[in-house]
Amino acid sequence: MSSLLGIDNGLTVTKAVIFDADGSQLSVARRRVPQSMPHARWVERDMAGLWQATAEAIREAITLSGRPASDIKAVAATAHGDGLYLLDRNRRPLGPGILSLDSRAGEIVDRWSQGSVFADALALTGQVPHASSPSSLLVWLRENDPERFDRIAHIFACKDWLRFCLTGTIGTDLTEASTSFTNVRTQSFAPEAMGIFGLEGVFEALPAVAHSADVVGYVTADAAALTGLAEGTPVACGLHDVTASALGMGGHEEGVVSIVAGTYSINEIVSIEPRLDPRWFCRNAIDLGRWNNMSISPASTANYDWFLDTLCRPEQDEAKRTGGSIHEMLAAEIDVALGKPSTIFFHPYLFGSPYGNAASASFLGLHGWHDRGDMLKAVLEGIVFNHRTHVDALRGGFAVREVRLTGGGSRNPAFAQMFADVLDVPVIVTSTDEAAAFGAALCAGAAVGLFASPQQGARAVSKTSREYLPDRARSAVFEDRFSLYCRIAESLKPLWPEIERLAGQSPEGAA
């Protein structure tokens, strides 16, 4: 018997998922990984704590699978992209890992937008830098924590840290390498890319690059003792979680828009040539000669989670006490709200937006007769509208024949139907609950010869769960609402910076 372990580390939860070689899921184990927010706009995590939580999840997943660890033929990890994970010269964590929700470098990005950096970066690297990109975070460290910056020996991403903990080897893959510093045409690290940001001095700290399905090491004795894995189990290089999700749902190919409704609003499509536009990142796909065009923002279901944590605390506590589902508890409220018209709009910019660092979230059109269900409906609609903003950009640049959806929200039929209605196209939801972990497992399987390639493995074992067809009447209503949603956002653009300036004022100072 053969099985594969896919590790998926998100922004709040790390998961270990074991799949049979036929793609069926055998077990999953999760651990929450606490975030630290010591200052406004800082979002961090302890790197040692992340590894400990991941190791616990792996051990539990092995137990739940009912199979011996020796049955696992290979392992690969995926994790949130961007952000920053650093090691010093002793190969020890150099401070906490910085997550892709972090926006401390927003002022640096705003400064770059006023000069030539944006245009230079787009032309050479295929993307405009953003607040949580490695480029902006490294410059922030150089300007604000020079002692830490001077001690940098290795620069890599979250999943590369997990690979290091498993194998003791340092490196990254093509997809992760292209978050800031690759030449978009050669698809390899370029000193001139570092030069755009004044970071030439740390070019040597960038990791070696391998294919996502290359074996890059083996589980060490220490890692085996901690995780329960068999010592010597092959470990594949792994990949960025955006790409892993598209691969896991069978959508990492030309003509398919893959949507991940998770913490981030992720919308992506593969091309056979680089096509540059500031509305998307043109990054490396799994294979050389392929590019993954990603239109994204940190403005998806993190807004829904915030609403639940902030305004549904009694139900959250009840769900934890009884082991029930908070989503099922609130379903009736949402269903009632979906069945009636509403004046409420929600712009889901709690953690970021397509409009830059200054944008903030808001409810508009709220009246005294509205209830929590009406607000929840507006939150879900705002999330889908934000996805449409990104999908429309991709549809303007690429031929689209199919749309696929995954992420926690995709398991809610009403939410999935809203995507079909808002996008006005059929939307396919696959049966793989853990698409990103499955994408990592496909790379692990290809690394040891179980699949000819990760993509062929996906085509062989992925299964379609359901296709949602747009309802023309609802699509027409959403079209009118989306138009107004966009006009409101445009009208707020000059006001958002003024709103943010209020954060620097205090009642005492005003007096």
From TrEMBL:
<feature type="domain" description="Carbohydrate kinase FGGY N-terminal">
    <location>
        <begin position="4"/>
        <end position="248"/>
    </location>
</feature>
<dbReference type="GO" id="GO:0016301">
    <property type="term" value="F:kinase activity"/>
</dbReference>
<dbReference type="InterPro" id="IPR018483">
    <property type="entry name" value="Carb_kinase_FGGY_CS"/>
</dbReference>
<dbReference type="InterPro" id="IPR000577">
    <property type="entry name" value="Carb_kinase_FGGY"/>
</dbReference>
<keyword id="KW-0808">Transferase</keyword>
<keyword id="KW-0418">Kinase</keyword>
<dbReference type="InterPro" id="IPR043129">
    <property type="entry name" value="ATPase_NBD"/>
</dbReference>
<feature type="domain" description="Carbohydrate kinase FGGY C-terminal">
    <location>
        <begin position="258"/>
        <end position="447"/>
    </location>
</feature>
<dbReference type="Pfam" id="PF00370">
    <property type="entry name" value="FGGY_N"/>
</dbReference>
<dbReference type="GO" id="GO:0016773">
    <property type="term" value="F:phosphotransferase activity, alcohol group as acceptor"/>
</dbReference>
<comment type="similarity">
    <text>Belongs to the FGGY kinase family.</text>
</comment>
<dbReference type="InterPro" id="IPR018485">
    <property type="entry name" value="FGGY_C"/>
</dbReference>
<dbReference type="Pfam" id="PF02782">
    <property type="entry name" value="FGGY_C"/>
</dbReference>
<dbReference type="InterPro" id="IPR050406">
    <property type="entry name" value="FGGY_Carb_Kinase"/>
</dbReference>
<protein>
    <submittedName>
        <fullName>L-xylulokinase</fullName>
    </submittedName>
</protein>
<dbReference type="GO" id="GO:0005975">
    <property type="term" value="P:carbohydrate metabolic process"/>
</dbReference>
<dbReference type="InterPro" id="IPR018484">
    <property type="entry name" value="FGGY_N"/>
</dbReference>
